[in-house]
Amino acid sequence: MLIPRKVKYRKSQKRRLRGKAARKTSLSFGTYGLRAITSRWVSSRQIESARRAMTRSVARGGKIWIRIFPDKPVTAKGSEVPMGAGKGAVDRYVAPVQRGTVLFEMDGVTREVARKALRLAAYKLPLATQFIEKE
After folding, report:
1. Element (H or E) spanning 75, and its range?
2. Is the pTM for the entire model greater than 0.90?
3. Do residues 77 and 54 touch, judged by C-beta distance below 8 A?
4. How far apart are the C-alpha atoms of 118 and 25, rounded to whole Å?
5. Can you tell me the distance from the alpha carbon of 36 to that of 130, in angstroms, rounded to the nearest whole number?
């Protein structure tokens, strides 16, 4: 799973995900891609699950780029911990994804294979996505 080697602050505040993405909005590496239509947090487990689905679908063909990285720590307190005992320990890392962000890119495969692989990856993600291709 993806986790950052080092973070500036061990714990972070939640913040709301609003608006459209200003960067990572177009295809930079591949010919086909998967773009987010809604905004959500995507965990490192979900990214890894989507990557595995795509890789197995293309059967050792093509190249895949992951355009998001889970660098935001999310904390969780243990069960039955009393109020006022401070913020919990870091539980997992997530990637905050705004709508319009390109999540994955793919090249070196046919359009049908790419569409199928990216559809399988989309099933693993908690947000609505759309298949895009370079003009």
Report:
1. strand 72-76
2. yes
3. no
4. 17
5. 7
> What angle do the packed helices 44-58 and 111-123 form, to 10 degrees?
150
Please identify which residue in the block is written with the tokens 């355009």.
67
Nearest to 104 by CA among 48, 56, 61, 60: 48
How far apart CA 119 and CA 105 sit, in angstroms, is 12
Residue among 103, 105, 127, 124 at smallest CA distance from 41: 127
Kindly state which CATH superfamily the domain 32-78+87-133 is placed in.
Answer: Ribosomal protein L16/L10 (3.90.1170.10)
Question: Coil, helix or strand for 5?
Answer: coil
**Segments making up each domain of the chain, as ranges:** 32-78+87-133
pLDDT digits (tens, 9 = 90+) for 34-69: 999 999 999 999 999 999 999 999 988 899 999 999
